[in-house]
Write a structure and sequence with these properties.
The protein has about 450 residues and is of the alpha/beta class. The chain is built from 11 helices and 23 strands. A 9-stranded mixed beta sheet has the order 8-7-9-10-6-11-12-13-14, sandwiched between helices. A 7-stranded mixed beta sheet has the order 17-18-16-15-19-22-23.
Amino acid sequence: MAKEKTVYTCSECGGVSPKWLGKCPQCNAWNTLEETRAEPAASKNRMQALSRGLNAAQPVTTLAQIEAADVARTPTGLEELDRVLGGGIVSGGVVLIGGDPGIGKSTLLLQALDALSRQMPVLYVTGEESGAQVALRAHRLGLDGSQVRVQAEIQLENIIATMDAEKPSFCVIDSIQTIYSDQLTSAPGSVAQVRECAAHLTRVAKASGCATVLVGHVTKEGAIAGPRVLEHIVDTVLYFEGDTHSSFRLIRAIKNRFGAVNEIGVFAMTDKGLKGVTNPSAIFLSTHSEPVPGSCVLVTLEGTRPLLVEIQALVDAGGPSPRRLSVGLERDRLAMLLAVLHRHAGMACSDQDVFVNAVGGVRISEPAADLAVLLAIQSSLRGKPLPKGFLAFGEVGLAGEVRPAPRGQERLKEAAKLGFSIAVVPKANAPKKPIEGLTIHPVERVEEAISLVRSLM
């Protein structure tokens, strides 16, 4: 028998090379080429014919002549999910949602399907469970009598035929890694199958106006499995995050063609499914009866939502090689802030272990957390707590200056609404009109902020 022809496919971009290379010639990624079976030319021709049938050619039009109307949105019935999507689902929009196994992706989408089934036809395609298992989950969630249409299928052509017959307005594919096409000989979950199946489902969604959600598996690094091009094909990419040992889940928008990115939705897992958390700041704040050393509250922004997060620091006697460890914040930035604290405020931690943690498992990437981190460190180093109702935010530069944070007014109003009374903020963020119940201390330099806090302790 003749030996089967093989090619090397990039797991990042899906590019094909006839031989193994250390670096992908298309996307320049290292060590991403994997050996796969070559597809016959006839299969490629059939795929191209199917693509032409699904995506008819459109005439060339001047941009000024195209009518740009506002995108109509349909609420899903889950307020936190709508926030992340930008207000609701969009006709013809394709959403990719990824997360760890057991995090709650199928549960969340089944709840959204049940709510939407009361106003439009919906379809749930499951490639990982049987219809009886889906019905059992719906019963556990209290969704008895649900009008959700369910199909247990993994063949792409059958799924497209079902969508053409049912004509749903909202469809969930759970999951894209289990779907395969007869036009390809590779196994389900391979780079070629994931890329082509996602591309066909996207074209069907655009042609029919059916809003489609693709559920994606994640790798051990936390990225969505399959080629990186998968995230470029879809309109919205959501990541479902959280610790399976905790009852709280975060859903974050990484890409959204119809709304703001970096929005965050907060859910609590209950015995009746996922429930939206209306006041997520309560999750990220500790419940100390009295202030403790090494704790400072930060007002951070997640998309358009201001959140109050407690930053905790612990400074302890270290050995010959002191440790710098941060959870939820960048470790390199922590080292930079310790150098600024030493140089401009005269507080040395070179022989101390420094640990910094963002309470609640939230990840903070914005530099506006710098000032709160510094004040928490100096509070732990001196062993004295910050005043009750105290908060701070602001970016710190290497020259010791305190730079403004975006949308400072909204941060301060959110803090005042939750009962905080003292705020140390950059001078450029000081409001022109006083905020009731909140005493604001504007600062320009790190040493000025440290001196002010010492006077308040």
